Task: inverse folding
């Protein structure tokens, strides 16, 4: 309930600032992300802790991305911003040694699994702006509402001479929550290109605070990415 109240509060602030002051800006953006997850045990079962320990040893960071639309409204030294994004998050395994080629036991075989989770994200952020000459530096904080779309598991198998790729839509051992929330923070700058267009660049972090897994193992995503944005200020 508190999460939804925070969302409504920030939407209310964004709406109230549209009634006066500087014009609204619309934008597009994309971000290349380093993605991973953290796992926690929601029960006291030791076997679940063992599963988490094993997964932490075999899983690692993978590349992801975020892209979407933005609407922002300056108000004094602040900027309120909302968005609608498509986000691909997840993680991958390290190389897992396998032995499928029995006829040649000396072959170095391995497989890598990449887990892709696709979401519709609704970020809500507040920026504190610092004007320096014609450049605006900014620090942003906020949260991201994530709505589950689907997931894919991609496997990469190496048989000693060539790679074989496969994709599966199977959700595996877990059910996934339709909604989770994350905190986000960023630091960056905006540079005007002309009277209406501005180009932005930010280093952005995302830290999940609710689980995307509906199981006794809880999973929270985190991302670290470089975000590029283009804004058009309405007259």
Result:
């Amino acid at each position: 309930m508190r999460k939804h109240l925070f969302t409504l509060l920030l939407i209310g602030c964004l709406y109230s600032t549209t009634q006066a002051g500087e014009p609204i800006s619309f934008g597009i953006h994309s971000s290349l992300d380093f993605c991973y997850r953290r796992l926690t045990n929601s029960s006291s079962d030791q076997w679940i802790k063992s599963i988490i320990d094993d997964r932490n040893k075999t899983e690692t960071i993978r590349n992801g991305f975020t892209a979407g639309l933005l609407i922002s409204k300056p108000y004094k030294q602040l900027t309120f911003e909302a968005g609608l994004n498509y986000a691909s998050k997840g993680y991958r395994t390290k190389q897992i040694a396998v032995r499928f080629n029995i006829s040649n036991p000396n072959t170095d075989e391995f497989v890598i699994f990449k887990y892709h989770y696709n979401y519709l994200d609704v970020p809500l952020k507040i920026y504190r702006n610092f004007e320096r000459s014609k450049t605006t530096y900014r620090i942003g904080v906020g949260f991201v509402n994530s709505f589950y779309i689907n997931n894919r598991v991609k496997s990469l198998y190496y048989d000693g001479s060539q790679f074989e790729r496969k994709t599966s839509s199977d959700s595996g051992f877990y059910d996934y929550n339709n909604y989770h929330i994350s905190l986000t923070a960023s630091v960056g700058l905006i540079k005007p290109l002309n009277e209406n267009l501005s180009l932005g660049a930010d280093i952005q972090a995302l830290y999940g605070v609710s689980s995307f897994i509906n199981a006794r193992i809880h999973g929270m995503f985190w991302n670290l990415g470089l975000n590029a944005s283009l804004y058009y200020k309405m007259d």
Remarks:
- The chain has a mean pLDDT of 88.
- DSSP finds two helices and eleven strands in the chain.
